[in-house]
């Protein structure tokens, strides 16, 4: 069945005062609030701005308290499920940093005391900085996924990081057998993880070998790697990683996908008692649209029950569980706010609302994957609405929203004077994919960025980072750089 996502208000009627779109977006006096923050007031010169002066559009909003809320919520869910099931293992929350590697995001996740997952040599440099600044402590695990063959900078950098900080728990997760020799030859005491080739849903253990995935080890390689680690005096097999999908929105389906990897874990645990952590990777979903519905507690209960069944069958202890939450952790903390510049009827089926920025540059997934995000007006919510289509400033036919081919309905106020709108739940991947500090499509400069946090007394604190000016774009070496002659 083709489910049409709900991306905003879907009615010609004004939005009732006090209406809640989701847990963090609600309406008050015709304005949209993110928790207690009046978003329209950031731009309006009417004395209501929480800042000393109104801000210019477009604006990237970074709302750090939401990151901590998401972490606490899922930790509480698993804590309750562990008590309910009388489960004897622990739950470890790790942040998958590829979702958003901004400094303010990394320090917020680490400051929440959770563990850290990374996947490149630059990630190692980021971890080194975070250790030096006191954001990572020795009891926080650093999970190193990704390809790290002998001779690659990533492999060398990981080993150097362990040499510099021997007391820190740096856990390389093996993708290929050739990744083990550099760790063995280093002589350094590493805890090690193994990644199973298990992406997707498979009926049994053997079928995982045929997964169409470039990541992970086959069944035979898993056992070979475990033996190599056991025979290496400086390595300890600690973690098994079984990634099965992304944005999995059915708890039963999620756990069914994890069942074959869980069986491999149980078989390995029989033979290698140092293996104590089952890492299910990512996949925990988050609400990118307003029709999102996922029972996190049901997922946690089903997962613990499935593990308990297998542990009883194989007569092994119940393992600690780790999840690597990227999109779930940071999607909802990010928003992009725009002003509607003009309206063009243009003999189109729906009027075009043109915004002062680029949709496809700011949210590459809308045109690359047809992804949907929440779009709501920041003001005039107490006025009548009509169905519209959005266009960005670039000269590209894909710079539109809803995405081409989408049947989702977008309704915005008929009143467009000083109308501001926001794209929400865009804090994961979009900025990373669109590039930071570089040159965008049609060389449109990056927007200003407002970082919002809470003080100990609950009041807001703000940091404004100025975006790109035209001269910043011109200073980019990829733009207008002189040609360098080369010898034939």
From TrEMBL:
* Bilayer-spanning residue ranges: none
Q: What is its EC number?
A: 4.1.1.19
MF GO annotations: arginine decarboxylase activity
Q: Which InterPro entries does the protein's record reference?
A: Ala_racemase/Decarboxylase_C (IPR009006), Arg_decrbxlase (IPR002985), De-COase2_N (IPR022644), PLP-binding_barrel (IPR029066)
Per the UniProt entry, what are the Gene Ontology biological process annotations, in alphabetical order? L-arginine catabolic process; spermidine biosynthetic process
Keywords, ordered alphabetically: Lyase, Pyridoxal phosphate
Q: Domain (Orn/DAP/Arg decarboxylase 2 N-terminal): give its ranges.
A: 86-331
| Record's signal peptide | none
State the SUPFAM superfamilies in the record: Alanine racemase C-terminal domain-like (SSF50621), PLP-binding barrel (SSF51419)
PANTHER family cross-referenced by the UniProt entry: ARGININE DECARBOXYLASE, BIOSYNTHETIC ARGININE DECARBOXYLASE
- Protein name per UniProt: Arginine decarboxylase
Organism per entry: Ardenticatena maritima
């Amino acid at each position: 069945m083709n489910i049409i996502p709900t991306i905003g208000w879907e009615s010609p009627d004004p939005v009732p005062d006090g209406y809640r779109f989701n847990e963090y977006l609600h309406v008050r006096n015709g304005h949209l609030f993110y928790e207690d923050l009046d978003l329209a007031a950031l731009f309006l010169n009417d004395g209501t701005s929480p800042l000393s002066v109104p801000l210019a559009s477009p604006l990237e909003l970074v709302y750090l308290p939401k990151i901590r809320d998401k972490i606490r919520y899922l930790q509480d869910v698993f804590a309750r499920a562990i008590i309910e099931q009388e489960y004897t293992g622990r739950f470890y929350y790790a942040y998958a940093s590829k979702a958003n590697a901004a400094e303010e995001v990394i320090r917020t996740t680490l400051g929440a005391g959770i563990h850290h997952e990374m996947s490149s040599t630059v990630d190692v440099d980021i971890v080194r900085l975070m250790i030096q600044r006191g954001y990572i402590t020795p009891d926080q695990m650093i999970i190193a996924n990704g390809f790290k063959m002998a001779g690659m900078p990533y492999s060398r950098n990981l080993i150097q990081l362990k040499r510099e900080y021997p007391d820190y728990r740096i856990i390389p997760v093996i993708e290929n057998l050739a990744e083990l020799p550099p760790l063995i030859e280093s002589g350094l005491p590493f805890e090690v993880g193994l990644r199973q080739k298990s992406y997707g849903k498979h009926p049994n253990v053997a079928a995982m070998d045929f997964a169409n995935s470039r990541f992970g080890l086959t069944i035979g390689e898993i056992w070979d790697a475990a033996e190599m680690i056991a025979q290496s005096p400086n390595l300890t097999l600690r973690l098994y990683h079984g990634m099965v999908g992304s944005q999995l929105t059915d708890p039963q389906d999620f756990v069914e996908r994890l069942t074959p990897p869980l069986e491999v874990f149980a078989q390995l645990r029989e033979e290698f008692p140092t293996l104590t952590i089952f890492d299910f990777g990512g996949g925990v979903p988050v609400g990118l649209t307003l029709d999102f519905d996922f029972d996190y507690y049901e997922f946690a209960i089903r997962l613990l029950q499935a593990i308990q069944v297998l542990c009883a069958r194989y007569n092994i202890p119940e393992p600690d569980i780790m999840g690597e939450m990227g999109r779930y952790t940071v999607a909802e903390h990010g928003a992009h706010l725009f002003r509607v510049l003009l309206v063009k009827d243009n003999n189109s089926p729906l009027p075009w609302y043109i915004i002062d920025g680029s949709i496809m540059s700011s949210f590459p997934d809308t045109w690359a994957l047809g992804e949907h995000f929440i779009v709501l007006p920041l003001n005039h919510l107490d006025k009548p609405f009509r169905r519209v289509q959005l266009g960005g400033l670039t000269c590209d036919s894909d710079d539109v929203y809803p995405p081409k081919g989408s049947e989702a309905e977008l309704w915005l106020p008929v009143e467009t004077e000083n109308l501001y709108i926001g794209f929400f739940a865009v804090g994961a991947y979009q900025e990373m994919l669109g590039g930071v500090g570089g040159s965008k499509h049609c060389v449109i400069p990056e927007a200003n960025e407002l970082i919002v946090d809470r003080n100990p007394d609950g009041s807001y604190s703000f940091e404004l980072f100025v975006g790109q000016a035209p001269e910043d774009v011109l200073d980019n070496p990829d733009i207008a750089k002189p040609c360098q002659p080369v010898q034939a």
